[in-house]
Amino acid sequence: GSEGMLQPADMIEGQEDVNIIFNSRTAVGSHGIAVLMDSMRRFAAHESLQAMGCWSMVNIALVPEQKAALVKLGGISVAADAMAHHPKNAEVQFRALFALINLVIP
């Protein structure tokens, strides 16, 4: 499948922004969760990125420390926004709902 595919170069807005994100010295930044949240916010209109991002959140949220980081960085609102932006895309809806479930269950 296309779950792990790299995003096209045209989705990178500016090298300066990329450097700021990737040079983060926080534990959350080193896990890539901050990058995921930032990408989903920047490219809210991109359906396939939203679907892949939500599916990533489903899996990331399986680890309690990572789930806490996702919630702290706004994962719940990011998943809800994906659903709101793409109401007719069944894949986004399913994956975002699954992500929300994983984020809120203890």
Automatic annotation (TrEMBL):
Q: Does the keyword Hydrolase apply?
A: no
Name of the protein: Armadillo repeat-containing protein 8
Keyword presence, Translocase: no
Per the UniProt record, the source organism is Trieres chinensis (Marine centric diatom)
User: What keywords tag this UniProt record?
Assistant: Repeat
